[in-house]
Design brief:
By secondary structure, the chain is α/β, with parallel strands linked by helices. The chain has nine helices and five strands, in the order αααβββαβαβαααα.
């Protein structure tokens, strides 16, 4: 199926604009200017619509091609204010820093924790060996109800990996001048996490040559996803 059918601009321009938006802290207007500098005249509204449509398509393809997550999940939730109302952004990462899932909910009670954990189990395909959370009681409810055999750790500082993983989202949230609705936020968070996973190359952990090879592989995978 040709997902670019009836679009005036070629796939290379569309996919490049979408990649810029989800990979860097850029607005649709910023991307409009970047494309204009290259002689490509496209409105920010068109770029916004591209990001909505193709962001979801690329995300599904990236998830299908994902190599799999680790056996330890670090789970955390943070407050997010949308239209003056407090919501909770739930996030889980594995031991390699890969984002397993990110989900916005109105509450952080036991039912919300179970809902999020069920999403994680679907993403992972099986029960993790261990989950690491803070001491919020909702996690204990979800753990006992869904995966009682899995190790559940609440040791102090052990969950720093999940807490720090929220920073990239916070940066984008500030750049977007806060999320406007739960739907808009979730629509952005999914592709943002998928693109981050693909280009999460651990630059500070590997030699320069190895990093360049990893980056080439990531771009190759992106090219296949957007084809």
């Amino acid at each position: 199926m040709n997902i670019y059918k009836r679009h005036r601009f070629p796939p290379d321009i569309i996919s490049y604009a979408v990649w810029l938006y989800f990979r860097f802290n850029l607005s649709h207007r910023d991307i409009e200017d970047l494309l204009a500098e290259r002689g490509i005249t496209v409105s920010r509204e068109a770029i916004r619509l591209w990001c909505i449509k193709f962001g979801a398509i690329y995300t599904r393809r990236l998830k299908r091609k994902h190599r799999g997550y680790g056996d330890t999940f670090y789970i955390d939730e943070v407050f997010v204010k949308i239209n003056g109302k407090q919501h909770y952004l739930w996030r889980a990462v594995d031991q390699d820093g890969e984002v397993v899932d990110v989900y916005l909910q109105a509450k952080r009670d036991g039912a919300a924790a179970k809902r999020f954990l069920k999403r994680l189990l679907r993403s992972h395909g099986s029960e993790p060996r261990k989950i690491v959370t803070d001491k919020l009681r909702s996690y204990g409810v979800a753990h006992r109800g869904l995966i009682p055999e899995t190790i559940h750790s609440t040791q102090q500082y052990e969950n720093n990996r999940a807490e720090q993983s929220h920073e990239a989202t916070r940066v984008r949230e500030r750049g977007m001048r806060k999320f406007k609705s739960m739907r808009q936020a979730q629509r952005f968070l999914g592709p943002h996490a998928a693109v981050s996973n693909l280009f999460n190359l651990g630059r500070h952990l590997v030699r320069a040559e190895h990093y360049r090879n990893l980056r080439i592989s990531a771009f190759g995978e992106w090219s296949r996803v957007v084809a």
